[in-house]
Known about the structure:
By secondary structure, the chain is α/β, with parallel strands linked by helices. It has a single domain, classed as 5'-nuclease (Rossmann fold, 3-Layer(aba) Sandwich), CATH 3.40.50. The protein has six helices and five strands; from the N terminus they run βααβααβααββ. Helix 5 crosses helix 6. The chain is globular and about 35 Å long. The two termini are about 15 Å apart. The relative contact order is 0.22. The model has no long low-confidence stretch (mean pLDDT about 90).
Amino acid sequence: MNLLLDTHTLLWIGTHDPRLSRAASEAVSDNRNAIYVSAVTAYEIALKVTLRKLEFIPARPSVVQALTDYKFLPLPISVRHAEHAGTLGLHHRDPFDRLLAAQALVEEMPIVSSDLAFLSFGVKTVW
């Protein structure tokens, strides 16, 4: 199965955060699953580090390095993703979450996230 990681999920994997659920951890560790990290996540992390709202995973200086270390796959943002994000309901306005939701819907993959806002977009989640 293809799975898309939410930003907090990638961070929690990298820091072995106990908030990472057992189901999420098992899904990400299952070699039968292809794990994707969106360009949206790289942008969100870089922006929050620049704004000093986040300290990135000390052992991995970049999202690119985390992809390599964990053998996760990159998911670029396409015009189709961006267009779909613009059509989603306005009940959740976070642009990062909207793009992740659109990618999950367009690519037909669940998102690994504890954020219940994705359910309002009709995105399947693993948590």
